[in-house]
Design brief:
The protein is an alpha/beta fold and about 240 residues long. The chain has two domains: about 5-85 and about 155-240, Rossmann fold (3-Layer(aba) Sandwich), CATH 3.40.50.300; about 90-155, no CATH class. The protein is built from nine helices and ten strands. It has helices at about 45-55, 75-85, 100-110, 120-125, 140-155, 170-185, 200-205, 220-225, 230-240, and strands spanning about 10-20, 20-30, 35-40, 60-65, 70, 85, 160-165, 190-195, 205-210, 215-220.
């Protein structure tokens, strides 16, 4: 495999337990540089936990996480951010009393080194330039998500994990955010995108992994996923509350 197409991230047999419960029960996949991998599955299937383990919030109980061919499982988040792994949160928690600009500046100061970061351009790219000098507390929930994305990007990630960024966005905002994620991928960033909105997943991802109860039940294109019997069963079952 040529070096540029070698996986940036590879997880194998990942297990994460909470007490006796296995939130992740042997998950394996990889993400290439410049690729957008979707991670889908019903509520509680382990999507956020998967991001939490990859980004160092929790160490894995078993299995391995490799980044650029090196084991990183169990390293704390701040070290991983330095190495180029960052994420957005399902529920963003900006520093509410700091301005939008300062939230981004704080993140940038803790990010991967090298190169200049144009913070104004970054804020403009997530449509927060007009809010740069306002405290984050004044942003609505969609704007807080965009600030969370800007904060993650300010650390200059090479692997970006995105947790339900699209929830609550209107169709025009969805289109723009989808375009932005594709642009990031074109620049060589690898993205792991967790999302419930299948239209959005269809628009942005190259490939998807479907999780159910901490296990991966499908890997391939979304077009094939929706024709897969197990995937259909899991999603219809979830919709009917079984
Ligand atoms: N910190 C935690 N402590 C205990 N249980 C947790 C914790 N985080 C997640 N879980 C449980 O693990 C399962 C997977 O959660 P999560 O990864 O958040 O699912 P998803 O993001 O797919 O909705 C759920 O049953 C959830 O309640
Ligand atoms: Mg989640």
């Amino acid at each position: 495999m040529s070096p540029e197409r070698a996986p940036l991230l590879r997880v194998a047999g990942l297990v994460k337990r909470f007490g006796g419960f296995r939130a992740l029960d042997g998950v394996s996949f990889h993400v290439l540089p410049g690729e957008i991998l979707g991670l889908v599955g019903p509520n509680g299937s382990g999507k956020t936990t998967c991001i939490n383990v990859i980004t160092g919030l929790y160490g894995p109980d078993a299995g391995s996480v490799q980044y650029e061919g090196r084991p990183i499982g169990g390293l704390p988040s701040h070290r991983l951010v330095h190495q180029g792994i960052n994420r957005t949160f399902q529920v963003p928690k900006p520093f509410l009393t700091l301005t939008v600009r300062d939230n981004v500046a704080v993140a940038a100061a803790h990010g991967r080194r090298g190169g200049d970061l144009d913070q104004d351009a970054l804020l403009a790219s997530v449509e927060l330039d007009a809010y740069a000098d306002k405290p984050a507390a004044e942003l609505n929930s969609v704007q807080q998500k965009m600030l969370d994305l800007a904060r993650a990007l300010a650390t200059r990630p090479r692997l970006l994990c995105v947790d339900e960024l699209a929830a609550g966005l209107n169709p025009a905002e969805l289109d723009r955010v989808a375009g932005r994620l594709r642009e990031l991928a074109r620049s060589g960033i690898a993205l792991l995108v967790v999302e419930h909105l299948m239209g959005f997943i269809d628009q942005v991802t190259d490939r998807v992994i479907v999780l159910n109860a901490g296990k991966e039940i499908f890997e391939g294109t979304l077009a094939d996923a929706v024709r897969d019997e197990r995937v259909v069963e899991v999603f219809l079952g979830a919709e009917h509350g079984t």
